[in-house]
Each structure stands twice: as C-alpha cells, then as structure tokens.
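Example S7 (structure tokens).
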C-alpha cells in the first residue's frame, strides 16, 4: 500500500516509529507521494518520511496502539466531569448518557477557562477565567481576584493538582496576545474555608512573554506533570515540570515550533496533547493560518519533529480523538465566512476515509466563528459556537470522514451561551 505524505516543514517523526519501525504509517497532510519500507529521518535535514505498510501490519499497529492508550489513561483531574465556560454556561458529565445542564456559574469569559474537580468524587472545587477564581459556592475566593491571565486569551488558565497533595492546586495563566505578564502560576488550597478554598500564592512568574497556548502532559513516571507553552517571538516550546516539590525551574526549551512573531494576533490559538502524551497539536491563527503537529517526550519534556498543515483560515481550536488516530481543527471557510471543522487522519489504513482524502471538512456550522474543541469524558468532541446557546458535537470522532457524526446543534446550554472557549482540559 503506497500512501501520500502531505505536509510542509520538518519531517514528522512520531515516537512510536522508533519502537515499531516495521509497523510505521505516514502522517497525512498535503504534498508529494512517496514509497519505501523504512527511511531513517533527521529532525533537521528535511528528509521526507516514507513507508510501505501492509494491512496486516496496520491492524497489528492499531491493536498495539489501543493497548497503549488503555494503559495510559489520564487521571480525572486533567479532564474533570464538570465544565464551566462561556457566558455562565455549564455541563455535567457525571452520569451516563448525554451531559446535563450545569447551572449557577458566575463566570462570563470570552475565551479561556479551567475547572478543578475532586478526582475521587467529581465534586466541583473551583473554576477560573485566568483573572478570578470562584469556589464551589460560585463566589469569588477572598484572594481570588487579580490573577495575571486574561479572559481574552485562548487558553487563559490551566489547573494542575500538585502531585501527592490532594488539596493544593496550581492555576497557570497566560496573558493576552503575548503580553508582558507571560506564564505565571497561583496556588489554591481547597482545604481553606471549610473546603471552599482560597488562593494562598499569586502570580509567580515562570517565563515571559508567551503565546496564548497552554496545555499539560503527564510525565512518563505517571506521577509528575509537564506544563507546556509556546514562547512569544520565538520558535521555542517550553515545558515546565510540576512535582511533589513544586514547580521546577528552569523550563525545558525546544526550538521546534513555528516562529510566533509580529502582530499580537499571531499568539492566538489552542495547544493540545494526544491521549498518550506523545504528540502535540497547535492551532496558529492569523496570519499564520495553519496547524502544526509535533512529537513530545514525556520523560524529558522535549518537543521535536514538526509537521505543518496549511493553509487553514483562522485556525483556532484543535483536539485529538480518544484513540489518537484523528486530529480535528476549527477554522473559518473563506467562501462562506462560516465556521468549519477539519479532520486529519493521522494513521492511514483500511478504516481510512473511502475517498482517499486524509484531510476532510467534516462539519459546517451556521455560526460565523467556531472556537475551542474539547474531548469529553464520554469520548465525544464538543465544539464552541461563538454567541450561540448550543455546542456542536462530534459523536464518533475515531471514525474517518463524515462517519465521525458532526452535529452543529448538538447540546443545549439552557440560559448559558457559548463563546470561543471551553475548559482547558488535558
């Protein structure tokens, strides 16, 4: 089976290729066809990756990948069952079936937010827009104002529980469009005020300036956490290690990304990690108008092996399917000026799209702008529709092409409304 490699920029060198070269399958974006059994790749030489994989090997690879994903399930503090976002919108994934409305939110944020729930019980602990922190009673914590994030930053906040400390949580924040406040963290103790919590440390600088991209990946040891951001005016990704001893310094810098320079709007767009923690995907808004996919080493925090997918007008949200085989991104269609969802099939094989396309528009929205994508606890993907009272839903995101089941009017939000953001899960 000969498959085209369609991409620009550095060659894609996924970590699993090093372990299973005989099973390797190409990444799919745009470019020239290739054929080979195994071509070693230099991360900087620009050599094109090429493989020929049999159907038997592809099926074996899929089985190994499934086992890997099952054994690498992420903890619930990274993907909480309660979502609070947008203009007082909320969803509850605690029970089986479709999510239920979650009312009572005090938050009205244009873009980013993050939620902390008890990993054992799923109980709401607190939530934030990167500027304020509200407790489970939906009131601002006494010291919960004045964080240096911005509700106009795509990923304004990210919450990470301190390893080994059930009641201590870090709230990492990013400034608006590469602003001077950069990447900072505050500390919330949920043991304060009878469990309602309070901010006990505020706005400690990690690095400045950074773009609006912010995600986390579980360390290879299964305990610690890497917080990953993108340096502003640079090609560097930076990975910050969080351990039982706190936030470690200095960050690990990797010159692997697109240079984010120029107007502040170049800082806009989401960053997500794959379910197995071995890949990153970034959306680069105007004027870059593209996505990039990279490798990540959860043992060292290093980022490498970029593949660029372009052009995609106003690329903003990005998310992986639960099995890691598909990548989804939100953009704006230049012909209709409406939001669209693209699917990129990362593993060519017998279950690929029947028309042979590896990048497909799988969703057309009535909304002018689509924002964040987020994989729910139910495995479905949810899509923010700016200004509406519904989220779009991708029902079976592991499936190729239109079989993924995009529904534009997917989930009602009751009295709340969607804006550009969804909670920053990892």
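Recovered sequence:
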């Amino acid at each position: 089976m000969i498959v085209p490699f369609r991409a620009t920029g550095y060659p894609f060198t996924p970590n699993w290729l090093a372990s299973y070269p005989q099973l390797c399958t190409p990444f799919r974006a745009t470019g020239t066809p290739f054929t080979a059994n195994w071509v070693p790749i230099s991360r900087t030489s620009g050599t094109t990756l090429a493989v020929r994989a049999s159907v038997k090997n592809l099926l074996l690879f899929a089985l190994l990948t499934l086992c890997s994903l099952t054994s690498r399930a992420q903890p619930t503090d990274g993907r909480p069952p309660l979502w609070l976002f947008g203009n007082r919108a909320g969803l509850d994934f605690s029970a089986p079936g479709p999510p239920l409305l979650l009312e009572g939110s005090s938050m009205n944020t244009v873009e980013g937010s993050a939620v902390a729930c008890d990993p054992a019980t799923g109980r709401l602990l607190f939530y934030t827009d990167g500027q304020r922190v509200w407790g489970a009673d939906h009131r601002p914590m006494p010291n919960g104002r004045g964080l240096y994030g911005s509700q106009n930053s795509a990923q304004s906040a990210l919450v990470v529980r301190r390893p080994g400390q059930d009641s201590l949580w870090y709230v990492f924040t990013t400034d608006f469009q590469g602003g001077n406040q950069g990447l900072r963290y505050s500390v919330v103790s949920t043991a304060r005020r009878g469990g309602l919590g309070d901010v006990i440390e505020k706005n400690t600088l990690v690095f400045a300036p950074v773009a609006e991209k912010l995600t986390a990946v579980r360390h290879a040891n299964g305990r610690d956490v890497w917080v990953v951001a993108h340096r502003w005016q640079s090609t560097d990704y930076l990975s910050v290690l969080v351990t039982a001893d706190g936030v470690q310094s200095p960050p690990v810098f990797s010159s692997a990304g697109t240079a984010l320079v120029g107007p502040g709007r170049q800082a806009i767009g989401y960053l997500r990690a794959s379910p197995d923690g071995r890949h990153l995907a970034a959306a680069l808004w105007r004027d870059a108008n593209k996505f990039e996919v990279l490798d990540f080493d959860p043992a060292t925090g290093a980022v490498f092996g970029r593949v660029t997918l372009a052009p995609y007008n106003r690329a903003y949200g990005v998310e992986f399917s639960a099995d890691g085989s598909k990548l989804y991104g939100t953009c704006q269609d230049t012909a209709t000026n409406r939001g669209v969802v693209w699917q990129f099939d990362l593993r060519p094989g017998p279950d690929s799209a029947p028309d042979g396309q590896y990048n497909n528009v799988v969703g057309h929205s009535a909304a002018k702008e689509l924002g964040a994508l987020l994989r729910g606890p139910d495995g479905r993907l949810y899509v923010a529709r700016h200004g509406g009272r519904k989220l779009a839903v991708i029902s079976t995101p592991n499936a190729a092409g239109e079989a993924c089941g995009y529904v534009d009017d997917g989930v009602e939000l009751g009295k709340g409304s969607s804006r550009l953001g969804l909670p920053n899960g990892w």
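Notes on this example. The helical segments are 15-19, 55-71.
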